[in-house]
Recover the amino acids of this structure.
């Protein structure tokens, strides 16, 4: 499974976005299921503007199971807040933190993001190890 950040979601569904074609090209190469989180979805719909054609296309994509939406429980939310404090100098927002939490929980490393500088810096904790994300695209 590949985690998906806000940037590619907005770019995929907004043809006027500067990264639209690049993200479409990457999407064509992805063979694994993709997943995101509620905070990322919230951020994406806000940026796309809820009444836009892009937002409707994203909603249709979700309805067609093109992208799975995962939730944080209380423990996951607490971990996200820890990460936000740890990476405060980045700064890390809740959307990014939620993706790191799910990478830790589901033992994933691949992420489709345009936010390369942050996701190069973030680390996935696995026991005593801290793993780097594998950036898709």
């Amino acid at each position: 499974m590949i985690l998906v950040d806000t940037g590619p979601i907005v770019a995929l569904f907004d043809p006027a976005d500067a990264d639209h074609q690049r993200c479409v090209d990457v999407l064509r190469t992805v063979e694994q299921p993709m997943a995101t989180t509620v905070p990322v979805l919230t951020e994406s719909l806000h940026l796309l503007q809820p009444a836009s054609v892009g937002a409707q296309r994203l909603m249709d994509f979700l309805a067609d199971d093109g992208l799975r939406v995962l939730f944080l429980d209380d423990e996951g939310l607490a971990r996200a807040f820890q990460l936000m404090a740890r990476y405060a100098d980045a700064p890390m927002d809740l959307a990014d933190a939620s993706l790191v939490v799910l990478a830790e929980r589901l033992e994933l490393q691949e992420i489709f993001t345009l936010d390369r500088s942050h996701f190069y810096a973030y680390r996935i904790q696995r026991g005593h190890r801290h793993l780097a994300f594998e950036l898709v695209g």
Remarks:
- The radius of gyration is 14 Å.
- The longest helix spans residues 74-86.
- The chain has a mean pLDDT of 95.
- The first strand starts at residue 2 and ends at 4.
